[in-house]
Amino acid sequence: MSFLEVSGIQVDEDGHTVLHDISFEQGEYEKIAIAGETGSGKSTLLQTIAGLVQASAGQITFEGKRVIGPHDKLVPGHEGIAYLSQHYDLPQFLRVEQVLRYANMLQGDEAETLYEVCRISHLKQRKTNQLSGGERQRIALARLLSTWPSLLLLDEPYSNLDKGHKELLKEVIHDITERLAITCILISHDPHDTLSWADRILVIKGGRIIQQGTPEQVYHHPTDTYTAGLFGSFNLIPAEAASEFVAKLGIAPQGRDILVRPEHIRFVSEAAGSLTGTVQKITFYGGFYDVQIQLSGTSINVRTQAIPAATGEKVYLTVELEQISFV
Ligand SMILES: Nc1ncnc2c1ncn2[C@@H]1O[C@H](COP(=O)(O)OP(=O)(O)OP(=O)(O)O)[C@@H](O)[C@H]1O
């Protein structure tokens, strides 16, 4: 029995299918991130798992029991699943401790641990209208967790946070998993948040899961340009230019486009180079340079720590073969 089993979920809103045949399983304590462009259906999926949106087909099983949708339940939701919306709300003009006391189903020590994990112990005497956005969010999170759910669904928790509050929330989410032993699913549009955190990433496009895998798999071997673009910059070498490109590298052409990340191409000496090109443009980005190179039939971008040659000069390159994807 899986901790969470999502099977053949379809959701229709206003005669339009928002989610198509979504299936995946989650083990207890497995960290799953959901990535996808705006409007791809990420929030709808989390809300359906939480029992807040009705599925028109398929079923969700959580800890062996079916999650009932809002059409069949007087108070929508599931007591073991908490959903932190992008649009969470707190009652106005109450002290934080009052807000938490109303929601609190925990004993003294448990409550203190929760406040400590959420980094809000020092805010208990504050009024809810005297808090920053990041503080409000951590209080909303503590309020949700005070019912002691086993699964926490986080919908874009880092959006609208400045760097300091974002780093603090990352520590909070880490402790929620490690100290409170709560399993999480997280949506974020920032690849740094998902790649560095998740055990597995689900990529959603147009309401369908189009790829899933470890962060390394989706980053290094995206199955198409949509997934590649969600996680960083890439070069797409069209099939016509790709055959010459791979022939020079000593691998058989496949008649398909080639996708390769800019950091997987290296400048080498003439003797060690498989490819020859001319520097077209050099751009400094602080931690690295982006160097645009004209090769025969195509142009590529290379990420490097040092300028290989001046604009207009000849350079020699090689590519890490295992990092090439045919798409
Ligand atoms: N209640 C609703 N009624 C009608 N359409 C809806 C409803 N909820 C969602 N949709 C539509 O379903 C699609 C998916 O929306 P959803 O909010 O799940 O996407 P998302 O990937 O979370 O987007 P974002 O990253 O912008 O939050 C969108 O086209 C949206 O307009």
UniProtKB/TrEMBL annotation:
Single GO molecular function: ATP binding
Alphabetically ordered keywords of this record: ATP-binding, Nucleotide-binding, Transport
Domain of life of the organism encoding this protein: Bacteria
Span of domain ABC transporter: 4-231
SMART domains: AAA (SM00382)
GO cellular component: ATP-binding cassette (ABC) transporter complex
Pfam families: ABC_tran, TOBE_2
Annotated TM spans: none
InterPro entries on file: AAA+_ATPase (IPR003593), ABC_SmlMolc_Importer (IPR050093), ABC_transporter-like_ATP-bd (IPR003439), ABC_transporter-like_CS (IPR017871), Mo/tungstate-bd_C_term_dom (IPR008995), NA-bd_OB-fold (IPR012340), P-loop_NTPase (IPR027417), Transp-assoc_OB_typ2 (IPR013611)
Protein name listed in UniProt: Iron(III) transport system ATP-binding protein
Organism whose genome encodes this protein: Pontibacter lucknowensis
